[in-house]
């Protein structure tokens, strides 16, 4: 799993939560770092968990680049902004999975499990 989150505290909490439940997590603090990890470990990554709003390149832009080479990559977006506003603003497709911040550990784990099981 690849986790891309620019807020250190959120990234550490998410990584720790997922790790405690048996998930192997690669982490990046920027979209550019995330793309580098996909280039190196693409076949090992089964899901990308990314923030929507990040500096320089946002989550949806990064995911578009990932899907150029890995079109079936599963993605779970995270955002502290209202989900409907993000989708209405064109940042996400209606079919994209979104976990709204703040969230509880069980919400994160449930969302990841459901996406992996699709």
Description:
By secondary structure, this protein is an alpha/beta fold. Helices cover 46% and strands 18% of the residues. It has helices at residues 8-20, 31-41, 59-69, 83-88, 105-117; strands at residues 2-4, 26-28, 47-51, 74-79, 97-100. It has a five-stranded parallel beta sheet, sandwiched between helices. α1 (8-20) links the parallel β1 (2-4) and β2 (26-28). The longest helix has 13 residues, at 8-20. It is globular.
Summary, kept brief:
With 118 residues, this protein is of the alpha/beta class. The protein has 5 helices and 5 strands, in the order E-H-E-H-E-H-E-H-E-H. It has one domain (2-117): Rossmann fold (3-Layer(aba) Sandwich).
